[in-house]
Amino acid sequence: MEKIRRFLRRLGPGLITGAADDDPSGIATYSLAGAQFGYQALWTAWLTFPLMAVIQETCARIGLVNRKGLAGVIKEYYPKPLLYFITLLLVAANIFNIGADLSGMAAAVKLLLPVDELLVGFIIAVVAIFLIIQLPYRRIAAVFKWLTLALFAYILTYFLTGADFVKALQSTFLPDLNLFNQNSYLLTLVAIFGTTISPYLFFWQASEEAEEEILHHRLVTKNELKHEREDTVFGMFFSNLVAYFVIATCGATLFKAGATGIQSASQAATALRPLAGDLSFLLFAVGIIGTGVLAIPVLAGSAAYAVSEAFGLAEGLNKPFRKAKAFYLIIILATLLGFVLNLAGINPIKYLFYSAVLNGLVAPVIIILLIIIANNRRIMGNYVNNRLSNLLSAFTLLLMTVAVLGIILVR
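^ thats the sequence. predicted structure below, dont judge the formating
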């Protein structure tokens, strides 16, 4: 039991990063997949887990070894125009994701309380900004770890649906190959890959590992790298486990009932109510709100880390506002711009499409850089990639390149 407690205490950037990946827009993507194709997208979880884990572990190791985020490493060793291009796309994609998440959270709150969605979205944005500015880093990290518990709502919901466990297990390992002839199915797969392997997570985890290293004045050791790897692998496993159960829940209920026309996570929660009961509806809605509270600071924070490092500005959640004003102002601006997008009344599906395109454009470029950086002994010393990491990273690069081409061609 004591070993489990020690393991849980060591969990940090990896767990938080994995949980932040299951944000409201991500939950919407997984809900759509389950509603439209039942269990037939479950097989993606066992594919995305190792690929996501190896990419995030590479990012974490780069941040830990160099004591700086990805943008800082790229700035030091590679052409600045490339860094500025990546940073621009990352910030744009993150703002769209923030907008989608605020919209999803506001809609989820409205399911529980008779409130105005725009007002709720604005209040959530302001509260997120206030907390990330006012709380010291240690408190922020602790709050984020507790917020990951919100994701258990999606796992619990599945077991309330009376799902066909045998059929779900079969589809996990034996997908229907005939579906690959359908453009809508291919586009759904592209959306899942793009949602799961997201550039903002690359920047966030590298920067958080660097912050942890600087804050605790530690030297890189094999034991520390082992703990970082365990944290990352567990976080990515948890992230993909939640995605699996969201797809399975909607497959067991919405798909079975023919409710394939949902366009957001809140609509999925509403549709669950008559099919799986009030408790399932409540858990699903609460999960949307909880994960959004976690994801918005991560999205805004990763943008702030990238911009600050790109332009040599003081940065870090371990610094008070007065010592890193530009960093915190970027967080404020990104969050408020995300809210402003809500005023435009953009369709939730378009939110997902635009953010997927922007993420798809930048992900392959960053993955190429990650592979190059992680194999450069001048940058990584003795902590370069092994063969398995390089093989899985190369496959991830191929998958994400095909995904962005799929968005363009299949759409």
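Residues 12-94+149-285+352-410 form one domain.
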